[in-house]
Specification:
It is built from 11 helices and 8 strands. It is α/β, with parallel strands linked by helices and 286 residues long. The chain folds into 2 domains: 183 residues, Rossmann fold; 85 residues, N-(1-d-carboxylethyl)-l-norvaline Dehydrogenase, domain 2, CATH 1.10.1040.10. An 8-stranded mixed sheet has the order 3-2-1-4-5-6-7-8, with helices on both faces. Helix 1 packs across helix 2, helix 7 packs across helix 10 and helix 10 crosses helix 11. The structure holds nicotinamide-adenine-dinucleotide. Nicotinamide-adenine-dinucleotide (NAD) binds next to helix 1.
Length: 286
């Protein structure tokens, strides 16, 4: 199969990432089957997509007609059988190994043979997920960045089993979405989180040890290193619980103490200070 033969894409999970992935596929002319477990999750996702497309109309990136057409191409579904129509599938359910395996097995059974299946996991081994399906050679990592409609990068992760065809097709598909795919091999944290999470962790250690305030740490990185966001602002945006979970994956995956999560991060998570989503992290969000 080549990228030009793909007309219909299934997206599993209509949360933060799933609705963004559905948005970019629909905006690029693909029919999208957006699957979640309950109708209210799908309704909320469609509202979010509509709001985000409205913003693109206001910024004159697309026309009102483009918006209406894109929304019309998304077919929200709770039935797993709807996946039979898909030519490509992307999984974006929560980052929990047992859940991912269950959803991927279900999708594997519902998709036609030979249809590529991608996971948007941030940290779970693509090689081990591929092995759970009957189509390991058609399995790949497609790590979109949040917010999906805005961020250019897709980290495309080859499992040891991924075929050259699946890899080439996925890279071409990213280009068709107007994204910049970057190819990496499967390893804990891939490249994005393996490099980012130790930076966030060190920034947290600087605060814990009284080296500097969060504002000062972020100011150094923004003004000195030209980062658009400081590492602690970014950690609050990602979610401190998510950061700790990914550090845990790196720590276990490499068996190297340099990846141990900073105790201050753990303390904040224990307090329910998860960042933006809970109203407080390194900063307060009233
Ligand atoms: N949020 C981020 O910044 C970010 C960035 C990159 C990658 N990721 C990865 O993307 C994935 C999804 O993250 P998210 O932040 O969108 O999560 P989320 O919790 O916002 O959304 C997950 C959605 O999956 C749905 N779901 C649960 N079980 C399902 C099932 N059996 N079938 C279909 N849908 C099901 C949930 O109802 C929910 O709507 C995770 O693997 C995460 O690591 C997240």
């Amino acid at each position: 199969m080549s990228a030009s033969e793909i007309k219909t894409v299934a997206v599993l999970g209509a949360g933060t990432m799933g609705n963004g992935i559905a948005h970019v596929f629909a905006r690029s002319g693909y029919r999208v089957i957006l699957r979640d477990i309950e109708q209210p999750f799908l309704d909320r996702a469609m509202e979010t997509i509509k709001g985000n497309l409205d913003r693109e109309v206001k910024k004159a990136k697309i026309t009102e007609a483009d918006k209406t057409a894109a929304l019309g191409r998304i077919n929200p579904q709770t039935a797993i059988s709807s996946l039979a129509e898909a030519d490509f599938a992307v999984e974006a359910v929560p980052e929990n190994l047992d859940l991912k395996v269950r959803v991927l097995k279900e999708a594997d059974a519902a998709l036609r043979p030979g249809v590529p299946l991608a996971s948007n996991t941030s940290s779970i081994s693509i090689t081990s997920l591929a092995a759970q399906t009957s189509r390991p050679e058609h399995f790949i990592g497609m790590h979109f960045m949040n917010p999906v409609p805005v961020m250019q990068l897709v980290e495309v992760i080859r499992a040891i089993q991924t075929s050259d065809d699946t890899f080439a097709l996925t890279m071409a598909l990213c280009e068709k979405l107007g994204k910049k795919p970057v190819a990496v091999n499967d390893a804990p944290g891939f490249v994005s989180n393996r490099v980012l999470m130790p930076l966030i962790n060190e920034a947290a250690f600087c605060v814990m040890e009284g080296v500097a305030t969060p504002e000062s740490v972020d100011a150094v990185m923004k003004m000195g290193m030209n980062h658009p966001m400081g590492p602690l602002e970014l950690a609050d945006f990602i979610g401190l619980d998510v950061c700790v979970d990914i550090l845990e994956v790196l720590y276990k995956g490499f068996g190297d103490p340099k990846y141990r999560a900073c105790p201050l991060l753990r303390k904040y998570v224990a307090a329910g200070w998860l960042g933006r989503k809970s109203g407080r992290g390194f900063y307060k969000y009233p």
